[in-house]
């Protein structure tokens, strides 16, 4: 049964009237289970979020961040290894960090997706069955709930799912719904969500893309016309495979695999997930802020209507189609490239090496690629969107650079080791 208070702990009013758990005497509890408890619950979170929310790719990392930050705070509140995320509560030192992690994930997911309660309750029972009964387990459960409630409160009213309209009128260079579905920019709200780490969505907004009449714009468009088309493309089979692979790489699974193979402890694993998910969430928010601000048209529109761009170095192709269906939002910045740059910069900072050693499976191709170094992953993400025909190289490269900058800033403020 879930404990409603921390047994044996003293509570005092913290900021905003929250209860502060006082550190108990005696040695800290061991890091039970290493990475496994966090990995299992982040796997559960990924499955529940996808089944219950059916989120867009842009929304997925925002929801995953809610769970991973609660788990992180629950674990480091016990172990003291790293600075908590926007919190200063501590558990009794005897509390079970594994019970805290499971309880935190369970609480956040149950709050967000009440319809999944039976599945979540069963998963929690399974985790707790592996932890010895007693005061340490009860302390961990109660502290995990406290950590989850804090994150739930932090994210209340953060703008997720709000009604945000794309204000620009269609004209040369400006985004409009694209084939085949001609769907509106329904995820525009992502660019107005309160970030997880940054001070504002526009904190790292880059400068504008090249003008329609510039040589760089023509170079970008011609590269797409040659390499991004559904038919008649100059792509190699390997380049086509890369474009398809990056439609849906499973990064949550890759993080868990990395933690398991490298024998990370529970605190290190919770930090890995929280840092990776929050920086990717903020990268998406930053990219969508730029999409709203600049509103540039997608390649399928630009190539078909190149006779209206005023650039003598471009040529229209009315029947051109991209290899991949074009997502329903503007070109600049590329969300995937911005996330890729942010993720790799965060991981190299967290791991202290350019060797990220990630084995990433693609849900699209069913294949797994091993990325030893961060730069190789970034390179492939950038190229994949061009070979898929859905982003200009400028949108990709500027996105990756923006992601690296915001991650470098976040590393100086969050998830730092405790001296």
TrEMBL record:
Gene3D superfamilies given in the database record: 1.10.606.20
CDD domains given for it?
Answer: PAP2_haloperoxidase (cd03398)
TM regions (residue ranges): none
* Segments for region (Disordered): 11-32, 306-325
The protein's name is Uncharacterized protein
């Amino acid at each position: 049964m879930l404990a409603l208070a921390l047994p044996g702990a003293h509570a005092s009013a913290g900021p905003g009237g929250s209860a502060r758990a006082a550190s108990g005497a005696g040695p800290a509890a061991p890091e039970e289970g290493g990475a496994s408890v966090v990995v299992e619950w982040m796997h559960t979170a990924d499955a529940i979020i996808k089944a219950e929310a059916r989120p867009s790719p842009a929304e997925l990392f925002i929801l995953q961040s809610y769970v991973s930050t609660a788990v992180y705070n629950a674990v480091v509140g016990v172990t003291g290894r790293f600075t908590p995320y926007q919190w200063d509560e501590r558990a009794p030192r005897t509390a079970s960090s594994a019970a805290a992690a499971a309880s935190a994930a369970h609480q956040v997911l149950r709050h967000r997706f009440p319809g999944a309660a039976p599945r979540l309750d069963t998963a929690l029972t399974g985790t707790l069955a592996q932890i010895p009964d007693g005061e340490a387990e009860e302390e961990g459960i109660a502290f995990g709930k406290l950590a989850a409630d804090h994150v739930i409160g932090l994210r209340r009213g953060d703008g997720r799912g709000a009604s945000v309209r794309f204000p620009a009128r269609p004209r040369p260079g400006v985004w409009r719904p694209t084939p085949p579905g001609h769907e509106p920019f329904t995820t525009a709200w992502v660019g107005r969500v309160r970030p997880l780490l940054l001070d504002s969505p526009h904190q790292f907004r880059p400068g504008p893309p090249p003008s329609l009449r510039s040589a760089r714009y023509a170079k970008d468009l011609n590269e797409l016309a040659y390499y991004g088309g559904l038919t008649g493309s100059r792509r190699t089979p390997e380049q086509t495979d890369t474009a398809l692979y990056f439609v849906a790489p499973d990064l949550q699974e890759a993080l868990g695999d990395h933690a398991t193979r490298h024998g990370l402890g529970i605190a290190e694993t919770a930090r890995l997930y929280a840092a990776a998910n929050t920086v990717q969430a903020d990268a998406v928010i930053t990219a969508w802020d730029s999409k709203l601000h600049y509103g540039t048209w997608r390649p399928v529109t630009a190539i078909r209507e190149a006779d209206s761009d005023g650039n003598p170095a471009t040529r229209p192709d009315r029947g051109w189609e991209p290899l991949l269906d074009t997502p329903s939002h503007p070109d600049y910045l590329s969300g995937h490239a911005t996330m890729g740059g942010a993720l790799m910069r965060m991981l190299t900072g967290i791991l202290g090496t350019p060797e990220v050693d990630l084995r990433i499976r693609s849900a699209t191709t069913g294949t797994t690629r091993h990325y030893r170094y961060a730069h190789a992953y970034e390179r492939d993400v950038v190229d994949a969107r061009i070979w898929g025909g859905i982003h200009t190289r400028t949108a990709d490269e500027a996105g990756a650079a923006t992601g690296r900058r915001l991650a470098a800033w976040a590393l100086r403020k969050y998830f730092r080791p405790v001296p």
